[in-house]
Amino acid sequence: MQKPTIPKDEQLRLQTLHSLSILDTPAENRFDCITRMAKRLFNVPIALVSLVDENRQWFKSTIGIGASETPRDISFCGHAILSKDIFIVPNALEDERFSDNPLVLEDPYIRFYAGCPLKAINGQQLGTLCLIDQQPRTLDDGDLAILKDLASTVERELAAIELATVDELTRVSNRRGFSLLASHCLRFCTRQRLPASLIYFDLDNFKPINDQFGHAEGDKALIAFADQLKGACRDSDIPVRLGGDEFALLLINTTPDVAEDFISRFRESVDTYNEAVDRGYDILFSHGIVAFDHQKPSTIQEMLTEGDAKMYRRKQWRKNHSMSESTQPSNKPSAHHIQPFI
C-alpha cells in the first residue's frame, strides 16, 4: 500500500482548512443534496464530501457509509488532493498503490474511486467530492464534466463559509476567522508546551491618507500593508485585519525576542516598499507584542486587549518623544517627505 505524500504547502493548506471551522460540524443539507445527486447521477453506492485534515480524512457529507472519518494514511482522497484534475482509480485491486489497502480488502470494499479536488478561494486543495463503487468502472468525458460541475457547487458553499471569516478588502482573516483559528492554535501550543507571540499593529496617521488622497487610496494602503505582512509571514503564522487600520499577527512557536526580530525585518520591508512606490505618503505603524504562556494560557481576546494597550503606550511614547524633539533646533532633514505622516 502506498501512503499519500504530503503537499509542499501543507501548513498553508491546513491553516486554510482550519480557518473554516467546518471540521466535526453536523451534516448540512446544502452538502448532502450534492452527494445525493452525485449518487443518483452516477449510480454509485457511495458519494462523499471529504476534507483532508492533518491525520485523517473527515466526511462533511456521507451517502452510503456510516463512518465519519478514516485515517489519512489509507485514504484515497489524500492522493486526490495532490492532483489538479479528477483522480481516478478504475480498479483498486489492480492498482499497486491500493490493492492491499484496508478500505479495499475490507468494508467498504472499494474498487472504483473518482475524486475531484475541492479548492478554497486561495487555491489550496482541502478535500474532494468523490464517488466510490464496489465494482470496477470508468468515467467518460461527459461524466467528468458533470462531476466537476458538482464539485464547483461544493466549492461555492465552502467559499461562502470562507468569506464569512475573511476580510473582503485585504484577503487576510477577519476578526471572527482569526478568533476561531487562533483559539485552535493556542490550544495546540498549550498541549505541546510551545511559546507563541501576538503582535498588535496600528497604522500611524492613517486618517490623513484618506483625507488628502481619498478613501480609494486609503484602501490601497491597507491592502499594501496586509500584502507586506503576508509576505513576511511563515505558513504557520496567522495575520488578521481586526477592523479599520488595526491588524494583528499570531506567531506560533515564537518567543517575544524572536517577535521583535520579526518586527525589525518587517519594518525594513515596509520601508523598502515605501521607497519603491513613492505614492506621496509612507505606510507607518506602531505595534505591541504579547507573549503566550502555555502554563498560564490566556484567551486570544485577552491577548488582543493587552496588545492594543501596549501598542497604544508605544504610540504615545513615540508621539511625546517626537514632540519633545521638535522643540529642539535641528538641521537634520525629515525622515519622510510628507511631514504630516511622521
Can you tell me about this structure?
The N and C termini lie far apart (63 Å). The chain is elongated. It has a six-stranded antiparallel β-sheet with strand order 3-2-1-6-5-4. Strands 8-9-7-10 form a four-stranded antiparallel β-sheet, with helices on both faces. The protein has two domains: 154 residues, 2-Layer Sandwich (Beta-Lactamase), CATH 3.30.450.40; 167 residues, 2-Layer Sandwich (Alpha-Beta Plaits). The protein contains ten helices and ten strands. The protein is 43% helix and 20% strand. The protein is α+β, with helices and mostly antiparallel strands and 342 residues long. 35% of the residues are buried.
List keywords for this structure.
342 residues; alpha+beta; Beta-Lactamase; Alpha-Beta Plaits; 2 domains; 6-stranded antiparallel β-sheet; 4-stranded antiparallel β-sheet; 43% helix; 20% strand
Biggest sheet layout? 6 strands, antiparallel
What would CATH call the class of the largest domain? Alpha Beta
Q: Strand percentage, roughly? A: 15-25%
The level of helicity is 40-55%
What class do helices, strands and sheet pairing give? alpha+beta
Q: CA-to-CA gap between the ends?
A: 63 Å
Q: Determine the oligomeric state from the structure.
A: single chain
Count every helix, treating DSSP H or I runs of 4 or more residues as helices.
Answer: 10
Brief write-up:
The chain is an alpha+beta fold and 342 residues long.
Strand and helix map with partners:
Blueprint: H1 10-19, H2 29-42, E1 46-52, E2 56-63, E3 69-71, H3 77-80, E4 87-89, H4 102-105, E5 112-119, E6 125-133, H5 141-163, H6 175-192, E7 196-203, H7 206-213, H8 215-232, E8 238-243, E9 246-252, H9 256-277, E10 285-292, H10 300-326
Antiparallel strand pairs: 1-2, 1-6, 2-3, 4-5, 5-6, 7-9, 7-10, 8-9
